[in-house]
Amino acid sequence: MSQPREQWGTRLGFVLAAAGSAIGLGAVWRLPYVAGTSGGGAFFLIFIAFTLILGTALLIAEFVVGRRTQKPPVPAYKTIAPNTPWFFNGIMGMICAILILSFYSVVGGWIIIYFVRSLGGLASGGTDYEALFGSIISNPWEVGIAHLAFMLITILVVQGGVRKGIERTTNWMMPALFILFIVIVIRSLTLEGAGEGIAFFLQPDFSAVTGTTILFALGQAFFSLSLGNSVMATYSSYLPKEKSLINSAFSIVVLTIIISLLSGLAIFPGVFAFDIPPDAGPNLIFIVLPAVFEQLALGSLFFTLFMLLLVFATLTSAFSLLEIIVSSVSYKRPDSRGRTAWIVGILIFILGIPSNLSYGLLSDWLIFGNTFFDSIDILTSNFLLPLGALIVSLFLPLKMKKADLRDEVMRGSAMGNGLFLVWFTVIRYIAPVAIIIVFINSLIGLFTGA
């Protein structure tokens, strides 16, 4: 007899774990640097619109796939649409998760390095943080060891299951991270020159909007909500049938937008106050935040605590990415979960080595003008994630009866039928068209250089 499938202990545990999949780095690390290179306020406004309209609808759609079947993505698609090729979207989601974790774990290693260095008073003053960051990421031994350490921690937690590892950690780490973010934002807003950074982040300049800006905003919405790579389908497969998908999705979206807003308010005032170019790229969090903490009373201590919490928040995201593959591979043989986690985790570590060396030994190895690290980021965030979301939006209206969809979406919710009709309209008509238009714009930009 097979073992019963594990479930989340509470809806709050599920919401925090799912939100943690985004809050770890999707909002804290990636959004500020993508906004900085894509128009600031205009980008952020478009990102919010995509997140609220398309993100919420697609989040619920992935929830339906997972909770209805109580299975990992590949067998879930096969259950809903047997003897059809739709299950390839589950396979693509697994591939996408592998690629994202391969470079995501590199950033996790950078955060571990900063945490260890913060124990020695990194943010105590007198440090050239830009030069420090450059020296760290170009050191193959230091980043290599940290990258390995990050993956080993991820493997150790995922091999033990969902409830005791991920849920237990996120139940207190996410609220703590939120509180510390408030502290950083308050101090960041009081820096001299902060107003210019606030204007850049919140005042939209639509003259700077291009097809690339829209593409990046859509990609960020999918990245921040972990859409298109089957993370949410996997997590929702552990969700009890009586829990409301609508309430859970709304809670996750709101938390994601709030943290994204706080992230921008924490970083961009410091960017302008310390005269750092807003398009400096993914190193913003490693240059600006230490400088901001340096201005705080007991700043070195607060920076150490923040980096510790960011390590755990980053790991929470990594857990969800590794969980997709492990749960799928070990689905029919739960006793192989530990062995699967180690094999898959080590292979992903090896795959991440070129990304790890992209700013050092392989800095001259460019793919269409981008480092290997940036190329994997662009491929997954701007193409594979939207493609996966597009397939989900097409799949449900075609392969599930409308009455069955209504039953699954509205179960556990006291909201009226009108809300379901809005969701169904977005999924069946608006989401596919919007994603296809963005793809066309991206192709035009690719060939015209716009």
Automatic annotation (TrEMBL):
This is Sodium-dependent transporter. The chain crosses the membrane at residues 12-31, 43-65, 86-116, 136-158, 170-189, 209-228, 249-276, 296-319, 340-359, 379-398, 419-444. Pfam families: SNF (PF00209). InterPro entries: Na/ntran_symport, SNS_sf, YocR/YhdH-like. Keywords: Membrane, Transmembrane, Transmembrane helix, Transport. It is found in: Membrane. Gene3D superfamilies: Amino acid/polyamine transporter I (1.20.1740.10). It is a multi-pass membrane protein. The keyword Nucleotidyltransferase does not apply. The keyword Transmembrane applies. GO terms for cellular component: membrane.
